[in-house]
Amino acid sequence: MHMGSGNKRPSQYIFLDNGKSLRDVLNACKANLSESLETVILKAIGRSNYTTAFCINCKEFIPEARPTHDSCVLPKESGTSDAQISDTSRR
Q1: How many domains does the chain have?
Q2: Residue 30: what are its φ and ψ, rounded to 5°?
Q3: Neighbours of 16 (CB within 10 A)
Q4: At what angle do helices 22-31 and 37-44 cross, to 10 degrees?
Q5: Does 5 fall in a domain?
Q6: 66 within domain boundaries
Q7: Could you tell me the pTM of the whole model?
Q8: Major place of localization (predicted)?
């Protein structure tokens, strides 16, 4: 369902991949005022174990827990200099 439907409560009929409705997420946000909004939403959508990580080479943010960016582990034979690698990883 979407906003153009005749349903007066579309958030009850919009479902996430984990089976929870958008209404479930909104209710969790209202019920957990002591926790940060980000924490409550991550728990509600099933990503409570989400952690941030930083590349050990360039110290840039990595959205998943890995030691380095893919661009930081390119082979030296590729013809790409270290300056080019670090420049592209910051974009």
Answers
A1: 2
A2: -70, -35
A3: 13
A4: 140
A5: no
A6: yes
A7: 0.43
A8: nucleus
Length of the chain measured in residues:
91
The backbone region for 36, taken as left when phi is positive above 0, alpha when psi lies in -120 to 50, beta otherwise, is: beta
DSSP string, 8-49: S-GGGS-B-TTS-BHHHHHHHHHH-TTS-HHHHHHHHTT-TT
CA distance 49 to 58: 24
What does the pLDDT look like over 29-68, one tens digit per residue?
899 888 888 888 888 887 545 455 667 777 776 666 556 6
CA distance readout (Å), 67 to 33, 56, 82: 34, 6, 18
Task: Quote the domain boundaries for residue 78.
Answer: 53-89
